[in-house]
Amino acid sequence: MTRAPDDSTAEPYDFRAQRLFVDDALTEGAPVSLDRDRAHYVSDVIRLAVGEHLHLFNGRDGEWRAVREAGGRREVLLRCEALLRRQTPPPDLDYVFAPLKHARLDYMVQKAVEMGAGRLVPVMTRRTQATRVNTERMRANVIEAAEQCGILTPPQVLEPVTLPRWLADLAPERVLVFCDEAAPQSDPLAPLRAAITGPLAVLIGPEGGFADEERRLLATRPGAVVLSLGPRILRADTAAVAALALVEAARQAAR
Questions:
Q1: Residue 151 to residue 162: CA distance in whole angstroms
Q2: How far apart are CA 3 and CA 200, in angstroms?
Q3: Kindly report the CA angle at 221 between 220 and 226, in degrees rounded to 5?
Q4: Which pLDDT score is estimated for 11?
Q5: What is the C-alpha separation between 221 and 179, in angstroms, rounded?
Q6: 121 contacts 97 by C-beta, under 8 angstroms
């Protein structure tokens, strides 16, 4: 699904348009020559003809309508025509998680992007199943999800860090939302409403949960919000969606 535009403009927003992330600077009249992979996608996958349009964004300059111009046989040259959405700040929300394996990690990353994460932070815990984390694959999934969901700024992907190191480096003003299967069941929105106004870090543990010493370490964080996600044990990728949905619901209620 595509999100509503972040900014109202004179140009009507075409929700059906293809979106493409690029690194180039985007301004009126700016040319954009695509690299090999993106050129293949535009020419051979979506089959954009010369004179047809798509949307470009780079996480810095907003979203632009661009037209394909004539070029060489394997060249794809685009030119920015009109600003469709002005750039907005990324969400100040860190999604922090114990990495999963392969397809389930792909799914988790894509859903975290859709649900409004501003940064993705893999943390290695005692019971983390994945011993290696392919951050380049994560970044590719981030870009794909951002293109599909109307997001202007793809979230950052940080390199893996141990849970104690991450917690030690966590800025004091960032509220830790700690999803714990051992927490007493209660209204999860109630504690979030009080914490939702500032920067957040939402932490989801590994399959099998946190070790006791990790749980004790997290409990020492001043102002930490401990959430129960209900009476059932959720898979880590399902818990990600549930937790981020609660955060979004609390933010909407606070507006």
A1: 29
A2: 22
A3: 95
A4: 59
A5: 14
A6: yes
Average pLDDT estimate for 47-67: 96
* Cα separations in angstroms, 204 against 8, 69, 80, 100: 35, 46, 40, 11
Cα separations (Å) of 75 from 27, 115, 119, 143?
Answer: 21, 35, 34, 22
Q: How far is CA 71 from the centre of its chain?
A: 34
Q: Provide the β-strand partners of residue 119.
A: 94, 156
Measured torsion, CA atoms of residues 14, 20, 23, 24, in degrees rounded to the nearest 10:
-50
Nearest to 227 by CA among 214, 240, 208: 240
What letters, b where the CB count within 10 A reaches 16 and e where it falls short, cover 232-251?
eebebbbbbbbbbebbeebb
Q: Are 120 and 142 in contact (CB under 8 A)?
A: yes
Burial of 108 (0-12, 13-18, 19+ CB in 10 A): buried
Backbone angles phi, psi at 190, to 5 degrees: -60, -50
Per DSSP (E only), the strands in 149-218 are 156-157, 161-162, 175-179, 200-204
- pLDDT tens digits, residue range 13-34? 777 889 999 999 999 999 999 9
Do strands 53-57 and 63-69 pair parallel, antiparallel, or not at all (unpaired)? antiparallel
Tens of pLDDT, residues 75-105? 899 999 999 999 999 889 999 999 988 788 9
Alpha-carbon distances of 168 from 45, 163, 195, 221, rounded to whole Å: 46, 9, 20, 9
- The whole-angstrom separation of Cα 79 and Cα 84 is 14
